[in-house]
Write a structure and sequence with these properties.
alpha+beta; Jelly Rolls; Arc Repressor Mutant, subunit A; 2 domains; 3-stranded antiparallel β-sheet; 10 strands; about 20% strand
Length: about 280
């Protein structure tokens, strides 16, 4: 089967960081293709079969997918009401977004997985996100400079809100050193090690750290680390075939029962049930 290759210069004019378009069912690309740019697509209505990297999945209203340059995909069998927003982002622009987010965002996990990152949005989440895509499609027609700014902001928001392992919600008056510490703790070797890494990197006493974490993050250092571990465990359950025990150990838990307890407290599901549910709603 022939695979089409699309280049960003085929779609973008000079100075454009990307483009956002709303695509109806009759215009959905049925040809298998890949490209040298990035793409976010959001299904606004209806459903279609998404063929992706030799697999296929029904995407329904609220499906949000991050397509990377290596991914080969196409749409088949769209419903008559199928429509989606397609946000094309140039490779240079996306590289700038990843650079802005820094090494603590674990971008490698997004890029190395066999299948593209996927989120099934709840109706309320979809209603909140659709206006942003609509704004981008209009802004592109009116003002290129404004569009480029909005596009970069949208790409960073999509990555941090829906696809990266742990979305930090920090108060505006957080000390600089605490923000940097929080980012350092996103690194696998640090959250695996846990509190010892926190103390070593911060060079602060446990008592002082506990007070500062409660004040600015409204959680203890232990709760903060466990949140990061559980977030990464969820990603591993969704996007890898590694065993639950292996994932438990990889994220830093040496007590399986404690891992199960915290995981169910966070998600309402056991790790096994979470994986089964995810496999039914993603690639």
């Amino acid at each position: 089967m022939k695979i089409e290759f699309y280049r960003e210069q085929d779609w973008l004019f000079s100075g454009e960081d990307g483009i956002c378009t709303k695509i109806a069912f009759q215009d959905a690309d049925t040809r298998s293709h890949n490209h040298n740019y990035y793409e976010f697509f959001l299904v606004g209505a209806g459903s279609a079969t998404h063929h992706i990297n030799d697999k296929k999945k029904i995407v329904n209203t609220g499906a949000l997918v991050f397509i990377r340059p290596k991914d080969v995909h196409s749409f088949q069998n769209p419903s008559s009401d199928f429509c989606f927003y397609n946000l094309l982002v140039s490779r240079g622009t996306m590289d700038s977004c990843f650079s802005f987010l820094g090494t603590g965002c674990n971008a490698e996990q997004l890029m190395e997985n066999e299948m593209p990152p996927f989120r099934q949005l709840l109706p309320a989440e979809l209603n909140n996100l659709l206006p942003s895509f609509e704004q981008l499609s209009i802004a592109h027609e009116l003002n290129l400079v404004r569009f480029n700014t909005l596009l970069r902001a949208a790409a960073v928001n999509l990555l941090t809100s829906y696809f990266l392992s742990y979305n930090l919600k920090l108060s505006h008056d957080i000390p600089t050193w605490l923000g940097l510490l929080a980012l350092e703790m996103q690194k696998q070797q640090n959250y695996q090690e846990g509190l010892n890494a926190l103390y070593r990197i911060s060079q602060k006493s446990p008592e002082y750290l506990c007070r500062v974490f409660k004040k600015h993050l409204n959680k203890t250092p232990t709760e903060f680390i466990n949140d990061i571990r559980i977030a990464n465990a969820k990603l591993a359950l969704e996007y890898t075939n590694r065993s639950i025990l292996q994932i438990c150990e990889e994220v830093g838990f040496d007590n399986t029962s404690h891992f199960y307890h915290l995981f169910k407290k966070d998600t309402g599901l056991s790790p096994k049930a979470f994986r089964e549910l995810s496999s039914g709603s993603q690639y």
